[in-house]
């Protein structure tokens, strides 16, 4: 077998490879570059699960980054248990014939309780007094203190939020090299999220993007040199491309105006009660899962969605996901320049407290506005400093600095029918590789490892 490192450069597309990515360009010139139709929806959890099982979302069950649990009557976003992903994983398939095969998962999602040999994933600590401490979770557990002792604390604020930037990808790259030096895994899965942040924040083609490309290209170049010096094959992979957007679509507000959303007042704030609502949306970038607690409204909901500006098409649960109950009864797909915001309140004064915070689990949808600090705050740095002082002293507080202006977002993803320049890429040094679909990535990676 050939040892393999897979560099998942999120957001990388054919159109971004060029003068500002000399290392990636040289790697592509020396090998084979395929761009392919992304998984549906083209989001992180779905794409990665498809790559690592070779199954469609209808088969592995990861229908989005989050969905509505019909039994608990709760929405669940960014869960981490690998048990959620159905099907045999890539390393399990290889291990069946080669018992000594090992795998390291460095920040790929669904990283907890997997059968991989070594893994690191973001996992804050939440003491009972309401505070939050940034940290990582590792398998084996004692690896957490070992990797932090050698590399320092993971720079969690640069992994997501207004400070999202290159340090998180740099740390992940160093941790991947650290695992190689300590354990020499047969397969090393490395997640490099940097482009995901800037492309959503500024949009493709923005003046800020060339400098961001140069930063991640430097990280990728160091990893290529590191692995090739150890005779480890490298594949560069991405999950999706980012489309330029200028139109947020608020499906839950439309449903509320129809009287289909049930609102619960909690301490003067409005919470959407999914279990009591007739119709509601769980928004995830350019795809929204629509759940019908009142099936009699199906035709009316479809008519409303199809007449809504920014909605390109409506798919059924059966057609999109083979009837998987995790998926919405209907799935709305945005037009190329639009995306779905989860907002359901009609007055910002009664928006839930978590709306203005970085709070990826409470929100009934993905919220890229968390990448921004509210421009209307007069002294945002002072407010953040005050919060951090209170936190250090052991007091609880609310870091409510996120704006409620979805028009700030300039890039999104999730659609599967996109132009070739917005499709994900697979770059290999192996001759004859031609990836056509997200499901095919599994067999291509397996072939890279088994090639003599």
UniProtKB/TrEMBL annotation:
* Protein name per Swiss-Prot or TrEMBL: Alkaline phosphatase family protein
The residue range of the signal peptide is none
Q: Which organism is it from?
A: Persicirhabdus sediminis
List, alphabetically, the InterPro entries matched: Alkaline_phosphatase_core_sf, Phosphodiest/P_Trfase
Q: Which GO terms describe its molecular function?
A: hydrolase activity
List, alphabetically, the Pfam families matched: Phosphodiest
Q: Which SUPFAM superfamilies match?
A: Alkaline phosphatase-like
């Amino acid at each position: 077998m050939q040892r393999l490192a897979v560099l998942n450069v999120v957001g990388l597309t054919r159109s971004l490879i060029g003068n500002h990515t000399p290392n990636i360009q040289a790697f592509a010139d020396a090998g084979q570059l395929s761009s392919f139709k992304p998984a549906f929806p083209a989001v992180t959890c779905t794409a990665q699960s498809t790559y690592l099982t070779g199954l469609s979302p209808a088969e592995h069950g990861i229908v989005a980054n989050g969905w509505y649990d019909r039994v608990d009557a709760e929405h669940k976003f960014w869960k981490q248990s690998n048990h959620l992903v159905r099907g045999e994983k890539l390393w399990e398939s290889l291990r069946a014939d080669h018992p000594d095969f090992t795998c390291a998962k460095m920040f790929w999602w669904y990283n907890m309780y997997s059968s991989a040999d070594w893994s690191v994933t973001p996992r804050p600590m939440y003491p009972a007094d309401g505070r939050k401490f940034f940290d990582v979770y590792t398998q084996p557990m004692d690896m957490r203190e070992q990797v932090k002792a050698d590399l320092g604390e993971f720079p969690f604020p640069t992994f997501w939020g207004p400070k999202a930037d290159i340090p998180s990808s740099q740390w992940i790259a160093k941790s991947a090299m650290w695992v190689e030096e300590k354990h020499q895994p047969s397969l090393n899965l490395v997640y490099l999220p940097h482009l995901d942040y800037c492309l959503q924040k500024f949009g493709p083609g923005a003046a800020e993007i060339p400098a961001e490309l140069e930063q991640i290209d430097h990280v990728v170049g160091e990893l290529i040199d590191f692995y090739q010096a150890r005779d480890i094959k490298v594949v560069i992979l991405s999950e999706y491309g980012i489309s330029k957007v200028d139109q947020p679509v608020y499906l839950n507000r439309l449903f509320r105006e129809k009287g289909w959303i049930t609102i619960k007042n909690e301490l003067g704030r409005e919470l959407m009660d999914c279990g009591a609502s007739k119709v509601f949306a769980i928004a995830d970038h350019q795809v929204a899962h629509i759940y019908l607690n009142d099936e009699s409204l199906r035709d009316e909901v479809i008519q409303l969605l199809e007449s809504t500006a920014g909605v390109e098409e409506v798919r059924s649960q059966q057609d999109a996901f083979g009837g998987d109950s995790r998926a919405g009864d209907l799935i709305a797909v945005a037009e190329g320049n639009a995306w779905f915001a989860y907002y359901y309140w009609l007055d910002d004064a009664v928006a839930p407290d978590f709306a203005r915070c970085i709070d990826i689990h409470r929100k009934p949808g993905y919220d890229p506005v968390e990448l921004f600090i509210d421009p209307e705050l007069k002294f945002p740095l002072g407010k953040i400093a005050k919060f951090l002082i209170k936190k250090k002293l052991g007091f609880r507080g609310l870091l409510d600095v996120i704006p409620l202006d979805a028009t700030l977002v300039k890039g999104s993803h999730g659609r599967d029918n996109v132009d070739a320049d917005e499709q994900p890429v697979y770059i290999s040094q192996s001759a004859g590789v031609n990836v056509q679909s997200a499901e095919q990535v599994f067999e291509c990676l397996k072939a890279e490892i088994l090639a003599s």
